[in-house]
Amino acid sequence: MGCLLIRRPDESIVISRGDGKVVKAGTWSGNDQALQLASRVVFRTVQRVTSDGERVAEPEVKESLVRSADSSSLKNDRARYVHLDKFDDLEFLALLAQERQQ
Questions:
Q1: Does the model's pTM come out above 0.85?
Q2: I need a surface site. Which of 48, 52, 60, 89 has the fewest CB within 10 A?
């Protein structure tokens, strides 16, 4: 999922309710050093459209993530992913995932 996260004054982290979200579905495989991902966008808050107003089909995307030297994150040339100890919005995340499956 792609979204904007907000860190509250109490240090907890939640998903912004007013910004766009992108939900992807796919598969992954890997080992201790890297992950290989294959995913496709299944939902966007704001759809991509052509100049004629038709939805743009989004292709499957394949990418690899490599574990950092200190094992604190996974990264590629576009992004860095870290564990969020203070993430406090699992109920909203589950709701988003459930709505996208229907």
A1: no
A2: 52
